[in-house]
Write a structure and sequence with these properties.
14% strand; Aldehyde Oxidoreductase, domain 3; Pyrimidine Nucleoside Phosphorylase, Chain A, domain 2; four-stranded mixed β-sheet; 437 residues; alpha/beta; globular; 17 helices; three-stranded antiparallel β-sheet
Length: 437
């Protein structure tokens, strides 16, 4: 078998056999297949598609290209996790992992860094002094076993073929392929050894999927392929037409996480999505009989302090301060300028350009414009307004955390344009748009 034969078959709209896909992925891992050939095949897939069986086989082949986590010694509790397609202010993973652990699950979460307008879970955790997001596999397993959860970044030998393919897709115009996105996500979660997965697929002007039809297509694809590959998967489509939660920016989102787990200043949209995703996993993994029981258990994990304690243990076990949750405000980096921004008019928040709000944080070095960029963890926004909020004269739409006057003025000008006030108070809508079983 030759690489060009596989490329030609997909170019000519043929269904690729499992043997062809396995051969090609093994060639990528061994570097026997050139980058140009990978680019050619991904473009053929982008143009001609993959059916469900092909996508399942691609995900399994990419899973098998490196290490696969084995949790056989943790058979007393289910291995569960969630994945998000990324949004602005999305810090759900930071609360979800310890809450699920407090309710009886093991959560080995392999998260990502941010790029462009979306913030990454790993970036947020790196705002914590000495937190190590890249432990070796033995350390990762030890923390999951002893604490109940661990949130880390993708190590070099977990689905390495996916990492290579994505880097080529990123520069060859094939990122938006539904089968390739699906296989990329599911291969990493399969390599993590999960027994159950829920996908949080963001939809709206701050998400990669702007309209509900595209979001629904991807959600169904991930649910079917994940399940077809032996990892029962469900998907929830959530709203990303406004920032999620009160704070946006790495250190600021960690601070909101601690407040949330303490039951303080809880944003209702953030709470709705977090409980919805967690409850889905508790029911799917039989840790709860139904959604009502699941949500009661989750709320108890917050009210009792159990989830906060697990978060503290995870931070400490991965190198962070042992007293982080007690003194988080002293440990997290702070910006030099912290001032509110006011609109010239008063009214109700009608809409916001969430994508550009995320990009404004990139302008303050709080997000990446290229993969190797060093981040400023302190910059961002706190107390961000939400759609439907009344903004009378003298009430800020947000508080800006910037390092220079120039940064502050730029962010101030941008926010005044990106948040639109009107005379009509909009009724709050559910942050959960659809569930894909």
């Amino acid at each position: 078998m030759f690489p060009q034969e596989v490329i030609l078959n997909k170019r000519n709209k043929k269904v690729l056999k499992k043997e062809e896909i396995d051969f090609f992925i093994k060639g990528i891992t061994s570097r026997d297949i050139a980058d140009s050939q990978v680019a050619a095949l991904t473009m053929a897939i982008f143009l001609n598609g993959f059916n469900e069986d092909e996508t399942v086989n691609l995900a399994l082949a990419m899973r098998d290209s490196g290490d696969i986590m084995n949790w056989a010694d943790l058979s007393d509790r289910p291995i569960i996790d969630k994945h998000s397609s990324g949004g602005v202010g999305d810090k759900v993973s930071l609360m979800l992992a310890p809450m699920l652990a407090a309710c009886g699950g093991y959560v080995p979460m392999i998260a990502g860094c941010g790029l462009g307008h979306t913030g990454g879970t790993v970036d947020k955790l790196e705002a914590i002094p000495n937190y190590n997001p890249l432990p070796d596999n033995d350390k990762f397993k030890k923390v999951v076993r002893e604490v109940g959860c661990a949130i880390i970044g993708q190590t070099g030998n977990l689905a390495p073929a996916d990492k290579k393919i994505y880097a080529i897709r990123d520069v060859c115009g094939t990122v938006e392929s539904i089968p390739l996105i699906t296989a990329s996500i599911t291969s990493k979660k399969l390599a993590a050894g999960l027994q159950h997965l829920v996908m949080d697929l963001k939809c709206g002007n701050g998400a990669f999927m702007r309209n509900i039809d595209d979001a629904r297509t991807l959600a169904k694809s991930i649910a079917r392929v994940g399940t077809g590959a032996g990892m029962p998967t469900q998907a929830i489509i959530t709203d990303m037409n406004q920032v999620l939660g009160r704070n946006v920016g790495n250190a600021l989102e960690v601070a909101e996480t601690i407040e949330y787990l303490k039951g303080e200043k809880v944003d209702q949209r953030l709470h709705e999505i977090t409980l919805g995703l967690c409850a889905n996993l508790l029911v799917a993994s039989k840790l709860a009989k139904n959604e009502k029981e699941a949500k009661e258990k989750l709320q108890k994990s917050i009210d009792s302090g159990a989830a906060l304690e697990i978060f503290a243990k995870m931070v400490s076990a991965l190198g962070g301060p042992t007293d982080f949750v007690e003194k988080y405000e002293t440990y997290l980096p702070k910006a030099k300028i912290i001032r509110p921004v006011f609109d010239e008019v008063e009214g109700y928040v009608e809409e916001m350009d969430t994508y550009q709000i995320g990009m404004s944080i990139v302008g303050m070095k709080g997000g990446r414009s290229h993969p190797d960029q060093k981040l400023d963890f302190a910059t961002g926004y706190s107390d961000f307004c939400q759609i439907g909020n009344a903004i009378p004269k003298g009430k800020p739409i947000a508080t800006i955390h910037a390092q220079t006057e120039e940064q502050f003025k730029q962010a101030e000008e941008e926010l005044k344009l990106l948040v639109r006030l009107g005379t009509k108070k909009l009724k709050p809508k559910s942050a959960i748009l659809e569930e894909i079983k």
